[in-house]
Amino acid sequence: MAPRNLTGFDMKEFKAAASPSSVWAKKDPWARNETWRYTGPFTRWNRFKRVFPGLGTATVLFAGYCIYEHFSPPDEHSHGHGQAGHGDAHH
To answer: Which of the listed residues 13, 40, 57, 80 has the most CB atoms within 10 Å of its CB?
Structure first.
C-alpha cells in the first residue's frame, strides 16, 4: 500500500506550476502586468547599481590617490625633530 499524502501537496504539480512555461503562468491575468518590474532598467543589477550612484567613481579616484601617495617622492619640508632652526625658538 502506498503512503497517503495527508496534506494534499503534490511535488510534481508544484514543479510544473513553478516553471515559466507552465499553463498557470499563461493563464495568469497579472503576469503581463508584472513582467515590467524585472526587465530593462528594473533588473536586479540595475536596481543595485542605483543604490550607491557615486561608489564606482569614488572607488577609482581613491585607489588612484593611494597609488599616487605610494609612488610620489616624500615631502621635502618634513617636520622632523632633528632639524636645526625650525622650532628651536619656540621653547
So the answer is: 13
Cell numbers linked to 82: 632633528
Give the span between the Cα atoms of 14 and 18, in whole angstroms: 6
Q: Is residue 37 part of a domain?
A: yes
Nearest Cα neighbor of 77 from 65, 62, 67, 87 is 87
- Side-chain-facing half-sphere of 68: CA atoms under 13 Å: 6
Domain tally, the chain: 1
* Interval 5-19: pLDDT, tens: 777 777 787 777 666
pTM of the predicted structure, to 2 decimals: 0.39
Residue 51 in domain: yes
Three-state DSSP class for residue 32: helix
